[in-house]
Amino acid sequence: MLKMLNQPAEKDERYYHAYLSHHSISRRGLFRGVLGSAEKTFSVKSVRSVPRPPFAAKEELFLTACTGCGDCVKACELGLIQLENQKAILDLSYASCTLCGKCAEHCSTNALHLAFNADTELRPQFNSNCLYHRQQPCTDCQQACPQQAISANLSVDNERCNGCGECQLACFMSAIQLNLTPLAA
Ligand code: SF4
Ligand code: SF4
Ligand code: SF4
């Protein structure tokens, strides 16, 4: 019996049930313990291919936990969240994310949770429209960044950047595109 419980599939199932049964966890440490173990023991890693709201669980866990209830969609006053294939996705085409956390506060399944990264995993990339790259002076994106993540030569500090999207909106040349850059596990 003990041997059976040590098998990865059994372990995954136990952690999964533990995770789903702790919807109203109040102690952050316990939550992290359960989730940390679950994330490590899920056998197949799933790479994120679409942007999720900030505070999302690792992709495989997110796909398991998100029921497509739409509570986060309603909670986001900026209208940044939609459902695609019954899972929450983030769209920063027309507004930036304030990282206010309301989407996570309203997620009853913990697919989004404030204990997870306050990061959309989107990072800016500059295209040939960029005035700086045409040797013209422009610091609009640098000044707009609330994280001071963009340097004078337009390199982006991935640790400081949280993928809010302010820089993209600030660029009147449409020189910035936000690319999904999944964080290291
Ligand atoms: S509130 Fe949570 S479970 Fe519901 S759609 Fe949003 S992420 Fe998914
Ligand atoms: S953190 Fe706030 S602004 Fe960003 S997606 Fe969630 S509810 Fe919307
Ligand atoms: S570089 Fe700054 S403004 Fe742009 S997405 Fe990152 S944190 Fe937001």
Q: What can be said about the biggest beta sheet?
A: 2 strands, antiparallel
Oligomer: single chain
Helix content: 25-40%
Order of helices and strands: HHHHHEEHEHHE
Using the alpha-carbon principal axes, give the shape.
Answer: elongated
Can you give the mean pLDDT?
83
The structure class reads alpha+beta
Ligand species: iron/sulfur cluster
What count of helical segments does DSSP give?
Answer: 8
Low-confidence stretches: 1-18, 20-31, 36-44
Strands of the widest sheet, in order across it, are 1-2
Strand content: 5-15%
Gyration radius over CA? 19 Å
- Count of strand segments: 4
Distance between the termini: 32 Å
Could you please describe the fold and organization of this structure?
- It is built from 8 helices and 4 strands.
- It has helices at residues 2-5, 8-20, 28-41, 59-65, 71-75, 102-105, 140-144, 166-170, and strands at residues 81-84, 87-90, 122-126, 176-180.
- The strands form 2 sheets. The protein has a two-stranded antiparallel sheet. The chain has a two-stranded antiparallel sheet with strand order 3-4.
- The chain starts with a helix and ends in a 5-residue tail after the last strand.
- It binds iron/sulfur cluster (3 copies).
- Residues 124, 144-145, 147, 149-150, 156, 161-167 line the site of one iron/sulfur cluster (SF4).
